[in-house]
Amino acid sequence: MSSLPGLLRADLLKTRRTPFILIHLLAPLIGTAVFLAYYSYSPWNAIDKALVFIQSLGCALPALIGLVCSMSAEQEAGAGQFQGMLAMPANKISAYISKLLLLLLFGLGAILLAYLIFALGFGGILQQDRLGIPFYLTGAVILFGSSIFLYVMHLFISLRLGKGASIGAGIAGSLIAALMLTGLGDIPWPYTPFAWGTRFISLWTIHASGTILPPALPELKAGITLCTAGTILAVILSCIWFRRWEGRSSDN
Questions:
Q1: Which residues of the chain have pLDDT under 50?
Q2: With a threshold of 0.85, does the pTM exceed it?
Q3: Residues 6+ positions from 79 with CB-CB distance below 8 Å
Q4: Where do the structural domains in the chain lie, given as residue ranges?
């Protein structure tokens, strides 16, 4: 993977004339501004406000991931039916890893941006925050780490099946994530990748607010195990698949 830095720079240059960067900037800015505007007069307590914000971000993330992964794949499809990724057999895996890393780096940046703007606005402007910036930074890392599986899955769907399938799966994933926050998700959420982010950061908020979680919470242990193992396995399997992939038909 000696050419990985160069491939990453090339992938970054490819995004200059697309809405890719703009989406990663505007989505956190607009979304956070809407919540802060509402919280300026909402009668909810501070912990509930923070919890609803991070849960809403977690629910929206699958749809946004589906969108940006489809944009990244379609950019390659439009530039010669993926020949930029497939034309160099010796660097084929590097090309795939570069594409995935770019998506992950921008995803992490967008999540951190949303959390930091909310933390500064909620605490500095509205003077309502009781959790502190370290809480939001940790929450951003938790949400991002539990969403890596979704990036791998949506990049695979986008490359293999096209943008419609990826966007559709993302919208369905956001609905599932919201459903898993209800009582219906108390048992099955560890086995539902779309729910990992929302459930992990919800438990983190409850813990940070001073509520002691049961030390042997079985769902939490199962969720951490499945999320970690599933993410590692997904990356390995996707690399094996891409090494043998020869592109998709133009009608997808």
A1: 1-2, 251
A2: yes
A3: 14
A4: 4-244
